[in-house]
Amino acid sequence: MFLDESGFLLIPNVRNTWAPRGRTPHLWHLYKRLRLSAISALTVSPSRRTMGLYARFHSFNITGLEVVGFLRHLLQHLRGPVVLLWDGGPIHRRRCVQDFVRRHPRLRVHRFPAYAPELNPDEFVWAQAKRALSNSAPRNLRVLRGNVHRTIRKIRTSQALLRSCVHASELPWP
Length: 174
Prior knowledge:
With 174 residues, this protein is an alpha+beta fold. Strands 1-2-3 form a 3-stranded antiparallel sheet, sandwiched between helices. The protein is globular, with a radius of gyration of 17 Å.
């Protein structure tokens, strides 16, 4: 299982796009720094046949308590030993997170090397989601949440998209 956090802002993520000649596209938005924080885990079955995507969203910054709640949720849905790979971010080193990991021996945690986001396939889940949501200007957090949920649902239901995240990472993969 690969885990990562991300965030989505009401301020548009602008990317190059196509438009008719002489008609430059304009994005109108309210300059509000409201955000949607997200945590997700990309799971790979032991046989590497199926992949899954679990995600939770919050309208506030994610703390160690949200990480613990998410891990508890995952352990209820996944059977057997769970190997977790994540970055060495401060949120993962919080005392409540470390205590939770110690109390759950079937959860085996490993860290990616420092400054190596290209190794984490879950980073590519967020890259796909942000690319799909680029050049949009949601009016409020409710609209943003709906857009993010639809995008994550599309990724979650496509084994091809989930596999592309693993293959995009620089992990050795058979």
